[in-house]
Amino acid sequence: MIGKKSWIIPDGFLQPKSTGDEVSHEAVCVLNLTNDEADIRLTFYFEDREPMEEFVTSCGSQRTHHIRLDKLKDKNNQIIPRGVPYAIKLDSNVPLVVQHSRLDTSQQALALFTTMAYPAEDI
Asked: Of 46, 45, 94, 96, whose CA–CA distance to 67 is shortest?
């Protein structure tokens, strides 16, 4: 089986400022190579506040899903705060491959970066 059920992304930050037509955002990109739908749970950790734990989404079998963090809402309709550093733990019922991307449009010369998440041992 390709992938892991638990992933860590230690550097997250939704830029509070955007310029032009593009909105600064981050995405957690998942690839599900299994024959089952993935039930995904995201937990956000902060330096000075309690974790936010009620973010859930899914990814179909043999599909990819780009989870836009600026549009994600938890079960209580809360959003991830902008301008606050955070880390993410992603848990799934099936193995996934996970990548993290950030588009920063706070300046005219926008920046885009992407990196693979850290695959944690299944807990």
From this structure: 96
